[in-house]
Specification:
By secondary structure, the protein is of the alpha/beta class. The chain contains 13 helices and 8 strands. An 8-stranded parallel β-barrel has the order 1-2-3-4-5-6-7-8, surrounded by 8 helices.
Length: 259
């Protein structure tokens, strides 16, 4: 069982992906064939429930993007169900301590490395013989760093065995820093936080990831992030329709929105 983005990271390459917030398998199929390195189904803030997520994962299998899922919370039941459905990586929100990071890893790994229960009904169809130890090695475990508490415990979180990457949520991080939930590049608190995250990740040999926007991707890569989400289905739809409306009927300009 191969995980494209983990292979790319091992080769020193960066990966660029897209976010899926809309509950639609056809959209997922289009995104999966668009050429992005990964596609992440958002079941935290998107409007995607479990059953739709399964159909979206099936659709992503038709393309080349590694399928990831952001789960609603650091809860082992839903993490296991998303892995059984075919996710090759799990993004876990609001991980603020090494203990919470350990719980995330445990939920993603079969024993003896974790506590995941065996029952890969859907993913086993695609991968006969699916199970440990190969499945443990193939799953990307990606806690989110998006609070001051997580920043304070960053070195301890990164030291937890089994973490492949951490993923910065800029909006929640900004709010936690006392800033507004928008692009805060140029604000010292925000810039310093991103610099520290990249530096600590480099020291620990862990991939630094971040949610972004098309016009920020190059900057994020230059800053040292090796996992950058460039855009999302809802963003593309909103800005694309807004662009047409602006040209034809004087609609609302959404080109500056990034979250």
């Amino acid at each position: 069982m191969d995980n494209k983005i983990k292979t790319m990271w091992a080769q020193g390459q960066h990966v660029v992906g897209v976010w899926l917030s809309l509950p639609d398998s056809l959209t997922a199929e289009m995104v999966g064939q668009a050429g992005f390195d990964y596609a992440c189904i958002d079941t935290q803030h998107g409007v995607v429930d479990y059953q739709v997520a399964v159909t979206m994962l099936q659709a992503l299998d038709l393309g080349s993007s590694t399928p990831l899922v952001r789960v609603p919370w650091n809860e082992p039941g839903i993490i296991a169900k998303m892995l059984d459905a075919g996710a090759q990586g799990i993004i876990i929100p609001m991980v603020n301590s090494p203990q919470e990071a350990m719980a995330a890893v445990s939920a993603c790994r079969y024993p003896p490395e974790g506590a995941r229960s065996f029952g890969p009904l859907r993913v086993g169809l695609r991968n006969p013989g699916y199970g440990p130890p190969d499945a443990n090695d193939a799953i990307a475990v990606i806690p989110m760093i998006e609070t001051v508490a997580a920043l304070d415990a960053l070195d301890e979180i990164l030291a937890v065995p089994g973490i492949d990457a951490v993923y910065v949520g800029p909006a929640d991080l900004s709010i936690s820093l006392g800033l507004s939930p928008k692009n805060n590049d140029g604000e010292k608190l925000f810039d310093d936080a991103l610099e520290r995250i990249v530096e600590c990740c480099n020291n620990a040999g862990i991939i630094a990831g971040i949610h972004s926007a098309p016009d920020l991707v190059e900057r994020r890569l230059e800053q040292g992030f090796s996992m950058v989400t460039a855009t999302g289905d809802s963003n593309v739809l909103k800005t694309g329709l807004s662009d047409v409306a602006m040209r034809l009927v004087g609609g609302r300009d959404l080109s500056g929105e990034i979250y």
